[in-house]
Structures
1.
Amino acid sequence: MSIAQLAGQPKAKRILFYALTSGKVSHAYLFSGPPGSGRMNMAMAFAKALFCTGEGDDACGECLECRKFEHGNQPDLHLVEPDGNSIKIDQIRELQRELAYRNISTSRKIYIVQRVETMTLQAANSLLKFLEEPQSPVVAILLTENGQAVLPTIRSRTQWVPFMPLAPDDMLQTLANEGVPQLSARAAVHLASGLDACRALIQQNGFAEMRNVVIQLGKDSLTRFTAAMMSAQQHIFKTELGEQPQLLLSLLVLWYKDMIHFQAGRHEALVFIDQLDWIGKHAFSRSAEGWVTCMEYTLEAGKRMRAHVSPQLALEQLLIRVQEG
Ligand SMILES: [Zn+2]
């Protein structure tokens, strides 16, 4: 994977490409951003580009260094992650030994430290000394979910690279490139934060089935109240799907939201894009405010379930309220 192939993160990419094109590579970077924003993939892609000997700034994927990297066979790349709950001083010492070890090549060495905010104070101080006296061809990439939780002394010696939550469209594009089924992916990117969480949701047992049940329920909730009640009984609460009422409601919110997308002419934004015909016929049966009300009722049902109202009862009350409009 090269930097350009990764989803989103235009700002982080700008900073990294500047380093690659100008040759002004810092000796330490701090990648800070929420879970699922792709920091580790970006760190790997940046490292690969730094090792690459091909033409161009990003990794070429074809040179010897790129191939070594892809086979997990790049001896100048070192990874550190928490041992248990924290990164301990022995791990930093071990890293220093590895980096100090002179092999024949004088090429650049790179180390990536994950969850750098979990370093013990001793480990942080040890790393700090290291950052203060950088051996010139060494690049540190430090990863954290919370840059503010990293010691200021470390922060001030690193180039800050901010990561944002990935936008649903960026995630959808990436999942499409991976060949993930589009109908499931369209829903998942609105329900999970980050690509890993999306993939997990899509692979979860019954997700595609849940999507189908929600389509039926969404349709029936508007026009066929009794049928909606019965299908909720049969297809949700008598099956495994009943164990995930919150997921069901989250999907139902997306269903009502699709009506608003359709009204606004944003067909490309539809989650339930395979239902375009039906949605087209019914989207104008209520006003945009009416659909917002349906979404609010659905969210309230979720709150009631969290407050230990039985899911079945909460869903039935929801259907009554939606029916009444
Ligand atoms: Zn290359």
2.
Amino acid sequence: MERPYPALPILTESERIAQASHAFERLATRRSCRAFADAPVPREIIEYAIRAAGTAPSGANHQPWHFAAISSLETKRTIRHTAEAEERRFYGDDMTAAKASDEWLSALDPLGTDASKPFLETAPWLIVCFAQRKGGIDEDGTTQNYYVNESVGIACGLLLATLHEAGLATLTHTPSPMGFLREICGRPDTEKPLMIIVAGHAAKGATVPDHAMRKKPLERIASWL
Ligand SMILES: Cc1cc2nc3c(=O)[nH]c(=O)nc-3n(C[C@H](O)[C@H](O)[C@H](O)COP(=O)(O)O)c2cc1C
């Protein structure tokens, strides 16, 4: 069964160019935030952002994602404490465990990040994004899913863009390793946590590293054949 392609706005070419340029300008103001205020954010905004993520294209339309939206202080605290313990190992603060490679740590140097993650507790929302290896569109737990990471990556992009459009600050956070999030969120073994999207309002005086402002120009990220 087929149906007509959805109607899209009828615009002149210059109106389309203006729309594309406005969309770019709005998205270009997104910056990862690492200091959040504890001001609340209505659940409805998070619901719309997850709905937007759920419209993403996906391999065979299996929609291999699940978003666990957390606002409970107790759960956020548990995530913070567990993530900080992992991060202390990652950054080499915990001498009893293997740390990340020197190359990885020096790549993070310009961002000034460390093992302390207070935002995991202060931000009003943590959205843990899970990738489903299996399940299919009916989430039967056995049907193979395809292009899972690609599909979930696109969905997370739409989630971030919608939260940004709603005027919220976000951070893509990937504690390493992050398998512990599966248990905290009560998700099955067929799912893998890919990232936490932290959402809320930036704390007063929050800053961004200069490094984050360095975006590759169009000439370097595109070729025209
Ligand atoms: C997959 C992925 C994982 C990331 N993990 C972390 C993280 O664990 N901690 C963090 O502070 N930033 C993390 N970031 C944010 C990047 O550092 C940030 O996007 C980059 O420095 C560019 O800055 P911008 O987001 O402000 O443009 C991650 C981003 C992506 C896409």
